[in-house]
C-alpha cells in the first residue's frame, strides 16, 4: 500500500512586490494557515518514512517550513526541491510519483494548482473531471494506492482517503 499526500501551497500575496510569480510569498492568512496544516502532516507522517518533493517557489517553501523546521539538517537536505513541480503540470507530478524509491510507502508532494487537482483526478478516475475535487489554497489530500511499487501508479489507481482545507480545520477546532 502506497500513500500519497498532495499539499497545495497556502494563500499567497498578490499585492506583494515581486519580480516573477515564482517569488510570490504567502499572505497573512497563508502564513497563519501553513503551521496549522503542517501540524496535521506532523501527526500523520514520520520524517524517516516519507519521501518529500516540493516546488522550490517561495510560497511552497514557506508553506512547508513549519513541518520541517525541527528536522535534522540531513533530513531537510533530503527534500527534492523539484523545479518541474512549479509549472509543468500533471506529467511532472506523475514522474515524481513513479520515480519515488519503493523503500518509502509515503510520498508528500507540495505544489501548485491546477497540477495537484489534475493529478488527483487522473489517479482517482483516469482522466480530468473538471473539478471532481476543488483544491483550494492550503488543501491537503491523502490518497492511497494498492500498489507494491510507485512505478505502477497510474490512471484509476487511487482512492481519496481524506481531504482537508484550512477552512475545515478551523471549523473543527472551534467545536
Architecture overview:
The N and C termini lie far apart (33 Å). The chain is globular. The protein has one domain: Rossmann fold. The protein is α/β, with parallel strands linked by helices and 175 residues long. Strands 3-2-4-1-5-6 form a six-stranded mixed sheet, sandwiched between helices. It is built from seven helices and six strands. The chain has helices at residues 28-44, 58-68, 73-77, 84-87, 90-98, 115-125, 166-174, and strands at residues 2-8, 50-54, 80-81, 106-111, 140-145, 158-164. Helix 1 (28-44) crosses helix 2 and helix 5 packs across helix 6 (115-125).
Lay out the secondary structure.
Elements: E1 2-8, H1 28-44, E2 50-54, H2 58-68, H3 73-77, E3 80-81, H4 84-87, H5 90-98, E4 106-111, H6 115-125, E5 140-145, E6 158-164, H7 166-174
Parallel strand pairs: 1-4, 2-3, 2-4
Antiparallel strand pairs: 1-5, 5-6
Helix pairs in contact: 1-2, 5-6
Compact description:
It holds the Pfam family His_Phos_1. It comes from Cyclonatronum proteinivorum. This protein is α/β, with parallel strands linked by helices.
Give me the strand/helix succession: EHEHHEHHEHEEH
Name the beta content range: 15-25%
Number of domains: 1
Helicity, in percent? 25-40%
CATH homolog superfamily: Phosphoglycerate mutase-like
Return Rg in Å. 15 Å
**Quick one: overall form?**
globular
CATH-defined fold name: Rossmann fold
Largest sheet: 6 strands, mixed
Q: What's the count of strands?
A: 6
Q: Examine the secondary-structure arrangement and name the CATH architecture.
A: 3-Layer(aba) Sandwich
